[in-house]
Design goal:
mainly alpha, membrane, transport
Amino acid sequence: MTTPTGATTDGNTSRPGSTSDLADNATADAPADPGFRGLSPGKLMWRRFLRDRTGVVSACVVLFFVAVAILAPLISMLYGKDPKTHYGQNASDLLTDSGLPTGPNGGISGDFWFGLEPGLGRDVLTLLIYGIRTSLIIAVATSVLTTAIGVALGIAAGYLGGKTDYFIGRVIDVLMSFPSQIFLIATMPVVTGLLVARDQNPPGWLPFVSVTLVLSLLGWMSLARILRGVSLSLREREFIEAAKVTGASPMRIIFKEILPNLWTPILVQSTLALPAFVTAEAGLSYLGVGVTEPTPDWGRMIADGATFLRTDVTFLLFPGIAMVVFVLAFNLLGDSVRDAFDPKTNR
């Protein structure tokens, strides 16, 4: 006999798509190791992740960057420097007449561990650690916004179907046909103009909000398409039909039945999207339409460093290496999270 929730009266059997069903599938995919038996899906995924050395190392690198971003004011205070003071212009012996650091390797010394910025003479180390904050704040905010939009529209298109699915699908097709980089560059002045009047001084939050909104415009479609496909398959499952028979409303079915089965693709896609937003934000700043002075930013540091490539390669080296390491670590972490959730992908 079937209960109103779609589960049988047998205590050892549960409805498709339930937590115990996922646990059975996860256990079947797990290695033949007694330590994996009887574990919940979450613990199985955690065990798989801990066995992936690349994922663990990548997670440590990402956590290091996050900790540096959070503790940037404390590090700056202990270091005794800040990213706004023009040390090279305040002391005549730190920069040459042409604006280059007088010391070797970009002015690296006991006082300035990563050297000085050519021209303005700011401390490179504090520019780097505060640049991490800028990139992470924008990337995390964009990831949260695009995930919310992608989840809402993807589930709506997949579960409701019909005209809703057709309309959302055509919107996704149109937006994905735009050349993303040109579209981002063109929309930045428009978004900035909508937020602040021309005769007003731009507030400090404006670059963060503008870049976040612009990146979010073209960042949600991939997740929405994935969730639409999964929702289309889930709505035909027996436990969804059972919920409909019991009189459950569409909202209850979406939040109680469909959404719990979508956390894996949501988490994996969000993890993989965040480093892409970091590089996209840096690209906008590199092109001069992203975060502006005096806010520290990796993309603008790389753009400024490119102009001094022949005379002071050190200034370009530090932000370039930092961005490559962070983005690579986050991409490897995303791959490891995906493999931990679905071990069939690495077979």
